[in-house]
Request: fold
Amino acid sequence: MTQAEMNQRFSSTEASIIASRNHGRLPTWSGSSVQVETTSACEAMEKAGLDYGVGLQRLRYMCEPGMLRPDQFVTQEIMPLRAVVSCSGDPKVLGVVGKGYQVIQNREAFGLFHDMTQDTDVKFTAAGALTHAGFDVGSRIYAVAQEPAPMMVGPDELYRVYLMISSHDGSSGLTVMSLLYRSACSNGLIMYDKSKSNIFRIRHSSNYQENIRKAKYAMTLAQDHLNNLYVDFNEMATESFGIVEMHNLTEQLFPATIAKKGPGLVEEAETVMQVSHQAQKAREIVNTLFHKGMGHENIQNTKWAAINAVAEYADHFRTAPLRTGADAGTARFNATLLGTGAKLKQDAYNLLTA
Reply:
């Protein structure tokens, strides 16, 4: 590719970045949520319309003529505790689960979230329901709490954010995770690393009540994790990081792959590497965001600019795969907070702190 062609491609990438900002910028969790703005977890649940119970109903279907499967169940929304059932009056099917599955009610999940955060000065800012695997809305629920006082990294304000996610379809346990949120660009700087204790999970099993008792200790570990991240991010803000280093970083994050072999294309002894169009496009966007990212005017050519370029790409530019029954907001939520987008940010963090 000639220099003129490269300049044209980067100009096109920069134009698309500017255009995306003209449509506004919201946190990853905003697409499917209700803004609740309260200090009460119970009130947050009610404002978001999540104050309903969930029950098990035996799933009966024919595998073969005359045979039933009594060992599987359906989770269904039952009469709301303080609301009216949906217009049709039909219960929602939220998932199909196994015999040992124990329901963790929404009220229990919000109660746990309250207990974990009650020693912090948090406000519950958003809550909502998601679809998953083709089941009805409510197969996953979540809530967001944020501490009001910012933590400063260079010129940037970061906020401690806690995210609670629970499922009724057996796809995941009740999860509480911690992250730092950069207000300048609405990036969620979540480092998805189990060894760092920023993620606490409770399985939907018979002993889940016992695990709930461990939640307060888990919150202490989460606070320690965020403090360590804060130290690392301040160091990043003072460490120089040039465009050559940035290109090397994006090449590691979006690597070339071995070309598919075909008749007459690659000799048996050869190994040919190729960069896919998707990987090349990702590299271009992240490299452009390194200089042109939101709020990057005063953090140019630092590791802090590098990690935020990757986070901005993962949260706001990367296309999340749509699964059956999921909308774009659900897909983005799952990818950036629980899936490959979160892993991408963790990989960048690992490379920059190695």
Summary: The chain is about 40% helix and 20% strand. Residues 1-8, 62-68, 79-89 have pLDDT under 50 and may be disordered.
